[in-house]
Design brief:
Largest sheet: 3 strands, antiparallel
Number of domains: 2
Number of strands: 3
Oligomer: single chain
CATH topology of the largest domain: Arc Repressor Mutant, subunit A
Order of helices and strands: HHEHHEEHHH
Radius of gyration: 20 Å
Shape: elongated
Length: 156
């Protein structure tokens, strides 16, 4: 692995950490997005990332639960490998629409608790969740169509 790849992996790790995940999970994502071959064993990840086997095990389980990576095996090989799940980013981001709806419901409940004189903070949340509740699904559909088009172009 060269210096640029290491820097990229660290950058992904810091980004992931800034959103509440562990830096190691982000580093694993960075490695799996850039490694060749696309699949890596726990031992390969531990060596490349200079991490403990326990840390790799814990964080790959987390990433697998989130739906970003898959665990695979090969006949005749006792190792387990990890790779980025195809379409993972779109699926993970698409799942966020459920959170927007929950937040919208929370805002509606809050609105029923406060009078008009105290509604500005709740109304702000309502406006944001109404906007994203409408626009986010449309954006995801456009993104999926564009990805399908790109995949089709790659097969022709």
């Amino acid at each position: 692995m060269n210096h640029e790849e290491l820097a990229y992996i660290e950058h992904v790790g810091r980004f992931w950490e800034s959103f509440g995940g562990s830096r190691m999970a982000g580093r694993i994502l960075g490695r799996l997005m850039t490694c060749h071959p696309a699949h890596q064993s726990s031992a390969q990840l531990a060596e490349a990332l200079q991490a403990s086997a326990g840390s790799i095990s814990t964080q790959t389980r987390t990433l697998e639960t989130i739906g970003l990576i898959d665990r695979i095996t090969f006949p005749g090989d006792r190792s387990t490998y990890f790779l980025m799940r195809e379409g993972a980013w779109a699926d993970v981001l698409g799942a966020k629409i459920g959170g927007i709806q929950v937040l919208h419901d929370i805002a509606l409940a809050g609105r029923s608790l406060v009078g008009d004189d105290r509604a500005d903070r709740v109304d702000d949340l309502l406006a944001v969740t109404e906007f994203f509740g409408i626009e986010y699904p449309l954006l995801m559909e456009r993104m999926k169509a564009q990805m399908a088009e790109r995949a089709q172009e790659g097969t022709t």
